[in-house]
Amino acid sequence: MASNGTSSVADPVLLGTTLLDSLIPGSRIIFHFFTSYLKIDINGYIQILIGFALLTGCIQYLHPDIMQRIGDLIISTAEIRMEDEVFAYMMYWISRQPHMKRTSRFLAAIKFKHDPWDDSDDSDSEGEASDDECWDESESKLTTFDDYWAKMMNRDKYKAINFTPSEGSHYFRYRGRLIKLRRKQERSTSRDLGRSERLWLSCFGKNPEILRQLLLEAQKTYIERDGNRTLIYRARRYYERGFHWMRCMSRSPRPLSSVILEQAQKQEFVDDMREYLHPHTRRWYFDRGIPYRRGYLLHGPPGTGKTSLCFAAAGLLGLKLYLLNLKMNGLDEDSMCSLFGDLPRRCIVLLEDIDTAGITQTRGKTVTPRDADDHVVPASETESSTENVSDDSSRNSITLSGLLNVIDGVAASEGRILVMTTNHLDKLDPALLRPGRVDMSIGFGYMSENDIKELFASMYKLNGSDRPCTSNGQQQAKGEVIPSGELTAAEIQGYLLNHKDKPEAAVAGAAKWVEEMQKNRKN
């Protein structure tokens, strides 16, 4: 028995409160508030609270994954990685949701250029008018260029700001369900690894159907913004994560009529693609054990419309266009195989200027340096050049054999359309041109008289009866001034662009322009 009549046994309520306060800091203040102001006695629940706190602490510190397992039983979660195109779907969708206007934590940006998949154009942002909308044809007579340009410059100064959730956790409702969005940025000390992000979508319940519906809606919203535009992807190296197909732009489809080529050749090219893409053709290939692939070679001088035909065909058939530059630094055969393996089943792969890729006529050959008289050059005289060659080979290690294996090897992808272009057909190895790798070859040449007339009529939107007049009032046929078989479509189109709305001036100056072109070529 202690002095002053006090008990030597400590107050169990006081001990419990002290212990609980050590487990849950601040709990004593809460108890005091309930007892003094709300007149609620919670001393009888102290033991229960202590037991719950101890159990939670044991689970948290002794078995960290138990809480995760408990969460897995009652919560559904979808993980989205930045390297995947779904990340762009989600960022585009959520930036246009009403709750983003009410959130107190957000990331503000003009464009999503931190996202490697984004290709947002200026006209993609909400509230921004296109250039055509800024120039109203009905008011063109009353609107001067200075007024129009001032309007455009003011619009370019104030670009629309996109708002996306900042890093951390965010909550919103979708179709009556509470959804949690968590955004996390993965930082690395290595500069080469760059920056990456991940998203997690979570909801209560074991059924993740609501998350699938949300992602499908995000995909639909993202894709529908393109309408009938042609989507173009380009192979790019995303730091040390390797090469990926990244969407680089979307463009209005190019009319097939704008490609200057014989109508029969154009139609044969498109009809062959349609025949290949038909489901009966695919079944026919599979039933006979033939690899389901198709290859085309477009050859001819530069500027004759090879790439334009490929782009027009992609727009006409609604196919995505994938561009691959075999001269990219760091691209090797493994990366090229991975890129072809990631292609969708129906698409067009374009390999431009295959003759300049440095892999033609090198199938298993060792190139020996020779001089102009075909004599072997001593090694001592080629040391400096050897260093440069080794540097180039370190940047590009693709061989002809590697390219052939990707095109039609055992593990080659199926269902895609491969289009190769070249300016010099004679420089290509015959192995690259055999059937199965190149199934159709189309030659492009200099413009004929009929081609020139067709281009002229297309540029100035003239029908068959319209003809520009000379100064003496006589009719002059389109194309008679420009010689046939000497100039490319790009060269003639470039000249006509200098006289966009003046066909008579184009005809009048054509002879002098042709003379200058011929003189320059001779020089």
Structure description:
- This protein is of the alpha/beta class.
- It folds into four domains: 10-62, no CATH class; 76-125 and 160-225, no CATH class; 243-439, Rossmann fold; 449-522, no CATH class.
- Helices cover 39% and strands 15% of the residues.
- It contains 18 helices and 13 strands.
- The protein is elongated, with a radius of gyration of 34 Å.
- 19% of the residues are buried.
- Residues 5-9, 122-127, 364-395 and 469-478 have low confidence and may be disordered.
Helix content: 25-40%
Low-confidence stretches: 5-9, 122-127, 364-395, 469-478
The overall strand count is 13
CATH top level of the largest domain is: Alpha Beta
The main sheet orders its strands as 8-7-10-11-12-9-13
Task: Give the percentage of residues in beta strands.
Answer: 15-25%
Indicate the mean pLDDT: 78
What is the CA–CA distance across the termini? 121 Å
Looking at the structure, the CATH topology of the largest domain is Rossmann fold
CATH superfamily of the largest domain: P-loop containing nucleotide triphosphate hydrolases
Query: Do you know the CATH architecture of the largest domain?
Result: 3-Layer(aba) Sandwich
Evaluate the radius of gyration: 34 Å
Any idea how many domains? 4
Total count of helical runs of at least 4 residues: 18
- Sheet with most strands: 7 strands, mixed
Class of secondary structure makeup:
alpha/beta
Structure described in brief:
This protein has helices spanning 12-23, 27-36, 46-62, 64-74, 86-94, 131-134, 145-157, 209-224, 263-277, 279-287, 306-317, 333-341, 383-395, 400-408, 430-433, 449-460, 489-497, 503-522; strands at residues 75-81, 106-109, 162-165, 168-174, 177-186, 196-204, 230-237, 243-251, 294-299, 321-323, 348-351, 417-422, 440-443. The protein is an alpha/beta fold. It folds into 4 domains: 10-62, no CATH class; 76-125 and 160-225, no CATH class; 243-439, P-loop containing nucleotide triphosphate hydrolases (Rossmann fold), CATH 3.40.50; 449-522, no CATH class.
